[in-house]
From TrEMBL:
<dbReference type="Pfam" id="PF02272">
    <property type="entry name" value="DHHA1"/>
</dbReference>
<dbReference type="InterPro" id="IPR003156">
    <property type="entry name" value="DHHA1_dom"/>
</dbReference>
<dbReference type="InterPro" id="IPR001667">
    <property type="entry name" value="DDH_dom"/>
</dbReference>
<feature type="domain" description="DDH">
    <location>
        <begin position="23"/>
        <end position="163"/>
    </location>
</feature>
<dbReference type="Pfam" id="PF01368">
    <property type="entry name" value="DHH"/>
</dbReference>
<protein>
    <submittedName>
        <fullName>Phosphoesterase RecJ domain protein</fullName>
    </submittedName>
</protein>
<dbReference type="InterPro" id="IPR051319">
    <property type="entry name" value="Oligoribo/pAp-PDE_c-di-AMP_PDE"/>
</dbReference>
<dbReference type="GO" id="GO:0003676">
    <property type="term" value="F:nucleic acid binding"/>
</dbReference>
<dbReference type="InterPro" id="IPR038763">
    <property type="entry name" value="DHH_sf"/>
</dbReference>
<feature type="domain" description="DHHA1">
    <location>
        <begin position="244"/>
        <end position="328"/>
    </location>
</feature>
Amino acid sequence: MEDWKHYPQFAPLADLIRSHGSFAVIAHVHPDGDAIGSTLALGEALKQMGKKVVMMNEDGVPSNLAFMPGVENIIPTPDEPVDVEVAISVDNGALKRLGERSLEALAGVKVWANIDHHRTNELFGDVQCVLPDECATGAVLYYFFKYLGVPVTPVMRDALYVAVSTDTGSFQYQMTTAAVMELAADLIRMGVDVQDINRQLYQEKPWVKMQLMREALNGMKLTPDGRICTFCLTNEAKARIGSRPEDTEGLIDLLRSVQGVWLAAYLEETEEDPRIRISLRSKTPEISVAELASRFGGGGHSMAAGVRIRGPIEEVRLTILKAMREEVERVIRQKIS
């Protein structure tokens, strides 16, 4: 298994933690399994070390992750200032993605740390532990806990498993290496109930989510060559269905799963932001959606990325579609040259 000693970034992070007494742990808005799992695992580890800890998220814990033991300790961002010495951002590539209210609540913090695995991370913070070769921030923390010598409690164990499982697409994506499977095996040896966690993560969809999936199946568009699939979710459709923000998580996977598709784009209107939220996915290593998203100010991973673009949703779809078509045509030219 990959050894934590490969990562010199652990030493300054450990020094920071050992030399301070109070911490806020926070991940990006619209948190996914890696964001919540990493927040919870690190927060619990800090508590074990006798630290004062505030675990928080601007959007709170999504309902599909409410089953995780310990998530009741992750609070929505409070209106008042959070009185801690250090703020640690986890699974978050840009400071602004923590949310405006969170940045206001943490405005008095003197020291920031940045723990992440996104290659497009903006490297903010006083101490950075950004390891883009790891499959999830939960994996970064797994090795970091070994470095610290902190025992992994059942709450931390399950949180790390959720983080790694969700960010690898249930161990399906390109970053699922032998080391990742060995990491998962170690967590299972510690007592992870794989069947129960997988059931909760992947086999318990609320009815409103099924209605959103129906909306996507009816509304998705495929290019004539079958290489690109797109779908737009409007505020009108969400109001008609009665969905919450977390209910849209994973709709992009329906588009990506179409046979023959190389690229998928899910576009969503949001009430709180005039920009269109876009999720991008690639099924071919020859096209990086992180690079594609970066053209418009976004980022992420080569196979999964996101961006927000201002404009009417159909106009934005056509803009993204043009960029995606250019990438598909580039790959086709390379194959025939």
